[in-house]
Amino acid sequence: MTRSKVAGWLLIVAGMLGGMPATAVTLQFHAWGGSAQVNDYLQWVAGQVEARHGITLKHVKLADTSDAVARVLAEKAAGNHDQGAVDLIWINGENFAAMQRNNLLLKNWVSDLPNFKLTNPAQNPAMTTDFGLPTRGQEAPWGKAALVFYYNQRYLSAPPQNVQALLSFAHTNPGRFTYPLPNDYLGISFLKYVLLALNADNPDLLYAPVNADSFAQVTRPLWAYLDKLHPVMWRQGDYMVRQASHLQQLMGSGELLLAFSFTAAEIPGAVTRYDLPETVRTYAMQEGSLANVHFVGISYNTAHPDAARQVVNFLLSPEAQARKQQLAVWGDETVLDLSLLPKAARQRFVSQSSHPAALPAGAINRLLPEPHSSWTDALREAWFERYGARW
Amino acid sequence: MTLALNNLTIYRHGEPLLSIDVTVPPGQVVAVMGPSGAGKSTLLDAICGQLSDPFSYSGDIILNDQRMNTVAAHRRNMGILYQDALLFEHMTVGENIAFALPRHVHAKTTAAERHEQIAEQLSSVGLADLQDRAVQTLSGGQQARVALLRTLAAQPAAVLLDEPFARLDAARKDQLRHWVFDTIVQRGLPALMVTHDPNDAQAAGGPVIEV
Amino acid sequence: MLRFPVIALAVRWIFISVLSLPIIAGVVGVMLPAFGYFPALGQDTFSLSVFAELWQVEGIGRMAWLSFFTGVTATGLAALLAIALLATFYQHSGLHTLQRLLSPLLVLPHAAAAIALLFILAPSGWAARIGAMITGDVLTPQWALPYDPHGVAVILALALKELPFIFLMALSVLTQPQLQTRLHKHIKCAQAMGYATVTAFIKVALPIIYPHLRLPVLAVLAYATANVEIPLLLGPNNPPTLAVVVLQWFNHVDLSMRFQASAAAVLQLLVTLAALASWWLAEQIVASWAKRMRLSGQRNQLSSVIQVFAWTGALLFVITGVLMLTSLVVWSVATYWTFPALLPEGVTLLHWQTALTALTQPLITTLVLGIAVSLVAVTVALLALEAEAGFMSKRTARWQQWDKIAVNITLYLPLLVPGVAFLFGLVWFQQRWLAGSVITHVFVSHLIYVLPYVFISLAVAYRRLDPRYMKVASGLSKSPWQVFWQVKLPMLFGPVLIAMALGMAISFSQYLPTLLSGGGRITTVTTEAVAVAAGSSQRLSAVYVLVQVMLPLSGFALAWYLPGRFFNPAARAKRRQKRIAANDTGT
């Protein structure tokens, strides 16, 4: 261990013991800001790290995470190597791949976090793999998500249970379903889900790096499917929403009858806030649900790496994770391995009262892991090639 | 105190517009008569140091043997009166006059003393009890009187008058005219008045210059 | 000690450079990568290859066309309607009502107008709900607006914002003292010859007013062709307008997209230029047609067409405004609201609570930034005007001419050069040399947009001041500084406050400059409102827009209220009397 690492470690321990607070620093946490629940949770986190470590945490609400990635990249290009505007960043998938490729992330710091052990990384490779890419200690897991669907019960009694049923639903209810553009995280996830579902017999190709042959073979049924789906989508698929949150808004206004989300818990939360009708119900597709882990990274040019590590360590604490998992707060599933926690800490995770709009317990039939990350770019580029450069 | 204009010529775009050569002794009002457009107001601008393009001038402006040509406008000590009273509307009647008092007066007196002085001056011209009034509430004749009091409060070395009575009705005009000229004569100030009204020139009692 | 006139002159030159330098630097910063030069990415030779690649991008022609088409159509619509309104209501008692109705929309941020319009155009809005009452539908209709492929929704939003601007600009021209009496006489004359009032206005007054309106209209046109937030919120995305795509490309993860983005920004500049040129051409055609029409001798020409157009326009405008406001208010307190119910099931303050908690920080930032920027802008504008009245007026005509040209060019530079064409370049420069101070960057980029409006607004009042007041004060031996501080400023107190309020309103409404210069670190109410508009909560979005509306309006309310209280002896006397009366009754 280098000297600075030791020092950082000591700071973290000292902070945990509630001893001397670190010197007052301000950190910019760049995180997607489209969800009131997530924003509120981060406000709570800010209050906690202020009280515990004297760190002022500012949530920079991004409309698109790639904005922050571009920012770090621009800083690097401009030669700003130690006063970055981005300290912490909420990422996964291709944004992580882009940052890793361009060396924009602080390296080898995750395993030094005391709370990281609680994710049981040795037994749980998902904690150190992001869309098939090894994280190499450049980002710490923060939460887990699975792709779930939700529908308006008032108009729809039996929602589609697989991709084929989804297509026939769209045909009988033209204009009542859509998905976000593939440069949105949820948009590309939908494509991956359809791809996995249509290739359920032979998914292995999707877990290896993409090549021209495998791509052509695997995507053929996908294009055929989308060619049939688009004309019967919302606005005939001509305008497609740019962001996942817009999809939920359209569901709330009643324009759509069926939508999907990567955070099951935001559905009942949105119903409580009147943003979705009371008649909304959440479910998971019979054939399985796309699942992944999302992470927090530290930019390579942060001025306060130690404070940033302290914050991430707090995000991984049982207290913060349990609060995040509460339906009323955010409902994001924890990345901690509950069997490693003491009984008292485990108690925190016991779920509270259920909500009619919440995903029923045990609804997820099986998890479909994310394809290898090389598929993301290939898939998106091919999609734009085929359906036009929409921005 | 004497105001002398030595071969003063006003040019417009370099073309001569008007020439004047006069010496105004203390207590005399010299009237400059001419049709509108003759450059009468421009002449006053030149004398008080406010001339702007496209106008220019040659000759000398002498006040008390001192050449004023290059002296900044606010150091020339020449009060000016227009046909409009131009009282500052963000000040009361009394504040308008207090504003004009020279710095050394402010330094030597207390606010109460100044208030008293101004009250006296106002009552001497029949405007008692108006000190704290907003200027907009005064009649035209009252405003004109306050304007002259203000000009005199600054203790000018000379007074310039630009069509001072053009806005007043005939009855008031006569009354005010005599009061203004009397006051100037009493104070022994040299005064230059531009006007196109022969009655003004006549009432001033001094030489009349036609341009 | 420096003399005041010297300081004022220095500020006038600073004013010119504050406006022109960042824009020139920004355009250069965009031009270089567009021509393939960007050393940070290892490209240090000039070439046209980036443009060649841009040309290969699918739909690039359509994007450029959309920008051109939406901008020109909206401006044309707004200009025609503004003229029709003036012609119809010029000597009508409705003029002042109209003025009062349109003024608040002038200060409404573009983003707020777009989001508010979204509430009406949406298939879940009131219009759709009323329609469904008739048809008996239980599901939302599927009509083309918003996001329609031809940008009709964008045109509506742009026109909605531009109409008040053009109309009020024209009105301020019309009420210029000398012009007003002249026009009155002209129109009287024409009426005496038997021309209908409207026809007389078009044939006699318009040719006199229009030259004064040309520059503001061109500024509006330039802005409309390059606006980002309105097409982002209401426009199509298959493909979107050019300005939107420039923003997306500049923010793309792949840094090499910067080349393409820069080239597209240059293309945007050309599109804006093309729009300005087309407008000029259209002016020529209309002028020659109007000349023939003018001499046709017809007394009622176009009169009824124009009146119908004006009344319809005014009516639609008022209905839209009222619907927008009520929709926002109702949505902001709505609980569940199933289609096609006309009203929500209940009322809640939850959204206001959520929004106000989340908005505290952005609100403070918005206010502090707005006040600081306006204060600086008003000070700079006042001193620059002082230099014009003082130093400049004593120079030769040629000097004054050059000075005037320099000021006019710099004034309209930020209004004519599209933000997307220089802000990215400016940010690059700021990143390169002053990476540390984000707030300064945002401050400068706001100042670029605030200064021209503050200057134009103050200049009108400043130049209208009777110069004899200054001569009188000077005759009372008051120095230029004393004249400025003790006479001019108090006399201009009202206009100064209005300019402050205007400056703050402009600062509040900035989206792109805040977003880019702040790099996301500075969030204002407007950037938050745009982010939330595409978010999951329509109700929250309504609250944000209402806050956006209230901010500038409260500024103007103060600007209207304060002059009655300060520098106003009449009010002081009244207050004193009241106090005395109160004391009397008290004892």
TrEMBL record, chain A:
The keyword Signal applies. It comes from the Bacteria. It holds the Pfam family SBP_bac_8. The keyword Signal applies. Keywords: Signal. InterPro entries: SBP (IPR006059), YnjB (IPR027020). Residues 1-24 form the signal peptide. PANTHER family: PROTEIN YNJB. This is ABC transporter substrate-binding protein. The lineage of its organism: Bacteria, Pseudomonadati, Pseudomonadota, Gammaproteobacteria, Alteromonadales.
Automatic annotation (TrEMBL), chain B:
The keyword 4Fe-4S does not apply. The keyword Ligase does not apply. GO terms for molecular function: ATP binding. Transmembrane segments: none annotated. InterPro entries: AAA+_ATPase, ABC_SmlMolc_Importer, ABC_transporter-like_ATP-bd, ABC_transporter-like_CS, P-loop_NTPase. Keywords: ATP-binding, Nucleotide-binding, Transport. Pfam families: ABC_tran. SUPFAM superfamilies: P-loop containing nucleoside triphosphate hydrolases (SSF52540). Residues 2-211 form the ABC transporter domain. This is ATP-binding cassette domain-containing protein.
From TrEMBL, chain C:
It is found in: Cell inner membrane; Cell membrane. Keywords: Cell inner membrane, Cell membrane, Membrane, Transmembrane, Transmembrane helix, Transport. InterPro entries: MetI-like, MetI-like_sf. Residues 64-278, 363-559 form the ABC transmembrane type-1 domain. CDD domains: TM_PBP2. The keyword Endoplasmic reticulum does not apply. The chain crosses the membrane at residues 12-38, 64-89, 101-122, 151-171, 192-210, 259-281, 302-334, 363-385, 405-429, 441-462, 483-508, 542-562. It is a multi-pass membrane protein. Belongs to the binding-protein-dependent transport system permease family. This is ABC transporter permease subunit. It comes from Alteromonas salexigens. The lineage of its organism: Bacteria, Pseudomonadati, Pseudomonadota, Gammaproteobacteria, Alteromonadales.
